[in-house]
Amino acid sequence: MECSSNGLIYPMVGAVLERFSLGILPKLHHKIRRLNLESLSMKRILLAGEYPNLCELGLFNIQSEIFQRLFAEKLSLNISVHRSTFIDGNDLNDIISHMPNLKNFICSIHSNVYIDDLIHLPSNQSIQRTLKNLEKYEIVSYTDYFPNDKIGQCHIFSHSYATNSLRRLTNSFPGGLFKFVHEISLYDEHPFEHEFFVCIAQAFPFLKILTIDNKSSQSKRHCQSSNEDNRNLSIVEYHHLIQLRLFTAHDDYIEQFLLDTKTRLSNDIFLGANYDAEFVSSISIRRDSRINVIIHKPIPHLPFNRPCFM
User: Fold this and answer.
1) pLDDT tens per residue, range 234-269
2) pLDDT, averaged across the chain
3) Domains of the chain: which residue ranges?
4) Beta carbons of 76 and 118 less than 8 angstroms apart
5) Global pTM?
6) Do 258 and 283 touch, CB atoms closer than 8 A?
7) Helices in the chain by DSSP H: which ranges?
8) Nearest CA to 269 among 215, 305, 287?
């Protein structure tokens, strides 16, 4: 797409389009975060790569009839954005109002804001009120504020969400059933207690990969230190979990997953952690089962990027 000095949009054609779609995009498609396209060259460019990091798509010179035909009955949105205000039901209604034939709408939308930039901090109740007109799509939300990071997060998502991963779930996660999700990440400044992991196991019965980012000690752990107390806990069962990433998690969470009195694992576990092998072994030896734990630590003296996924 080319933009003239007078603001008019022209399609990319001929040899230029050929070189761009065959020579340039196949090499750079994985780095592209933003694309502005017009209708004539849109198909050629979109088919030139997979664009795993694309977070913004602009469509120009596209007729409303074509837009409605492309997104006539089904729309799926997976969005993560940092902006001055949360995305809410009013924003979604602005999109859906242009799609009169829409029957199926699913989404997972993360919007983050800097707390310092907000005079008023919207509550989850206020966000949910804006979703009232979208009740038929079974959309729910939860909102969190993290004072240490000075960040606010709002997550709006569908109960029928069918993509294989969800990220940055917090203690405010309302639960549900997500049979297609195999990978999740958990983040909070408040501790994840045992009951929260019960909820997670029930919501994601086919979970394979779990990342925990939480440096807060479990506050209820010290009340459950005796074997008698542990027997009264509901044992969390993970039938498909094979990878556990605890690089930025308090050591309480390794006990949460490796003690049979709290968690039952069906498979050998690949554990990514900064813990000392002796510490892990001291916990594993207290297990009754024979599940193997393979420990992976980041290579020392090299920069380590915290695992993150969409």
Assistant:
1) 899 999 999 999 999 998 998 899 888 899 999 888
2) 81
3) 1-62, 73-151, 164-310
4) no
5) 0.71
6) yes
7) 14-19, 25-28, 39-46, 64-70, 89-96, 124-130, 194-203, 227-231, 252-258, 277-284
8) 287
